Amino acid sequence: QVQLVESGGGLVQPGGSLTLSCAASGSRIITNMGWYCQAPGKQRELVATISSGGSTNYADSVKGRFTISRDNAKNTVYLRMNSLKPEDTCVYFCKVWGPTIVLWGQGTQVTVSS
Question: In the prediction, which pLDDT does 87 show?
Answer without folding.
Answer: 95
